[in-house]
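Here is an idea for our session: we take a single protein and study its fold together. To get us started, please write out a protein record for me. Start from the sequence, derive the backbone structure tokens from it, and show both lines together. Go ahead whenever you are ready, and we will take it from there:
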Amino acid sequence: MSIFFLKSKRTSLILIAVLSFYSIVSYTAPAYAMHIMEGFLPPGWAIFWWVVALPFFVLGLRSLTRVTQATPELKLLLALAGAFTFVLSALKLPSVTGSSSHPTGTGLGAVLFGPLAMSVLGSLVLLFQALLLAHGGLTTLGANAFSMAIVGPFVAFWIYRLVMPSGKQRLAIFLASAVADLTTYLVTSVQLALAFPTATGGFMASFIKFAGIFAVTQVPLAISEGFLTVLVWNWLSSYGRQELKMLNLIKPES
């Protein structure tokens, strides 16, 4: 019975990861909205964000190497976290010329594996979306990675750590995911405002304009993402308890 359960759990995780990837890759409708699109940022700002994002990516590779070498059993869960980010961040809602509103899906992976690991997973997700779906771009990959794959996961991780002493784990998961989503778009608004300050009002006026437009769709999206992440966490708590115990995210039964 225990062998059958383990096989069933692995099969479920593999099936979810494969179906998630297939459902996005097989989607061929035109993409009118995306992350900061290819060529949208001035060259100077595009290079700047690449330089800022690269050190986190390198540190993330070291973090992932340690995790996979110490606990190779977690590779499947790692793939699931990446697939979850891929699926959610590919659900685009047009928000403003040059960018879009969408869930990010990085909160779950940040809680499971830490923010540095998500800097790699999130960057790879953005790379695949740029190459396969024309969502985002290669020149703007550094900017998109900094907002979604670096700042968002770090915020999610620390929100989870701050709320967990209350003992309300599901609330911590919800807030980590929702606040990371909102923070990602605040950072995107900052990036766009820095690149395109208004003639009257400069950076601050431009930031208020971008953030205000994003908020119309992003606030309900962030709340929805928080609830969805809790649902996935509940599923993992039932069918992936061994992996969560290995990550010290749930306590072994007495």
User: Anything to note?
Assistant: Residues 202-239 form the longest helix (38 residues). The beta strands are 93-96, 99-101.
